[in-house]
Design brief:
homodimer, alpha+beta, nine-stranded antiparallel β-sheet
Chain lengths: 192, 192
């Protein structure tokens, strides 16, 4: 919880709270951090969509979501793997912008491991005959499902390089920027 | 409200609902559409932040938010004015992704008009001595406010070219893509 943070709070403690809130977001469907926005740059401009946060690992600096290999964002990410995640919790008056490089894991150890631990309801999307964003022409022909969705399942893992934390506190907004450099986090107070 | 929309609903009716929900989002602080994410492409990758939706005009196809001329996104937008807005309403199970070209209005008729109609609380941000994202070094020296924030106030107005509507309905997800072409909206059903 960000509620106890003051202007005098050590940035290291803020960073710890950020990662612990992200971990709560992974586990809690109703937490605002469960469904961040993920932004990608494309030739035709930026794109951004809501994703489900599947893992947040502070030690390895990793954020993970799942996607479909047929999604248009796969091609965009292969051209330019830079991404930014946006977490916004209106109740906690907190915004996190987190930048990193995305790696795509398809049919490898990580994909297999995360596929096995995912729920049947989540898996069903990947077994649809048409990939996300494809044009629907004939509902009847497209109503079936393929045998298995695993072939379409992709783990998007990004290693965090920058965290911009903004806390819209009633007593005055607080903002810190954390940059990963030379094997450690460097914090700076910046104007909100 | 999107709750009444079925697979058989006319896309024109869906589009009308989209714009009317955006208008509700403008007026209602607690509506999820009040605080969309705005994505921009930069040299160092994409960036995305929460903004406040100030206007949604279906007739002119405009979305408006306010920003500070000292914000780093101003330089990014001057290089590449393509933006995408993301609206996500968890309660209504609805996501909107809206693409357009951003125009920046600074010290012109639109800026003046919107400044005059904005509340003192909103204006105060623009009167801070440091612009958003600037590094804070000396709290004492930076505690004052400038005379007037109007000089920093920018209206970001984008004309909508594409709307991607996704409705995560329990009975089967629905998705429609609307493209503005040749003076009218063209709708296509696409895979969710």
């Amino acid at each position: 919880m960000f509620g106890q943070i003051q202007e005098s709070t050590d940035p290291a403690a803020v960073l710890e709270t950020i990662w612990s809130e992200l971990a709560v977001g992974v586990e809690t469907g109703r937490h605002a951090f469960h469904t961040p926005a993920l932004a990608i740059s494309g030739r035709d401009g930026p794109s951004v969509r809501t994703v489900v946060l599947r893992e947040a690992d502070s030690r390895e600096r990793l954020l993970i979501c799942h996607t479909d290999i047929r999604s248009p964002k796969i091609a965009l990410l292969r051209e330019n793997p830079l991404v930014q995640w946006l977490f916004y919790d209106r109740e906690q008056k907190t915004q996190l912008r987190i930048s990193g490089l995305a790696e795509l894991h398809h049919d490898d150890i990580l994909a297999e491991q995360r596929w096995k631990s995912s729920r049947p309801g989540s898996r069903a999307c990947y077994a649809q005959p048409l990939g996300p964003g494809e044009i629907l022409r004939d509902s009847a022909a497209e109503a079936g499902t393929t045998m298995d969705g695993y072939g379409n399942f992709v783990v998007l893992r990004s290693r965090v390089e920058m965290i911009d934390w903004l806390y819209l506190r009633a007593g005055g907004h607080l903002r810190l920027r954390f940059d990963w450099r030379d094997g450690q986090w460097h914090a700076q107070r910046i104007a909100p």
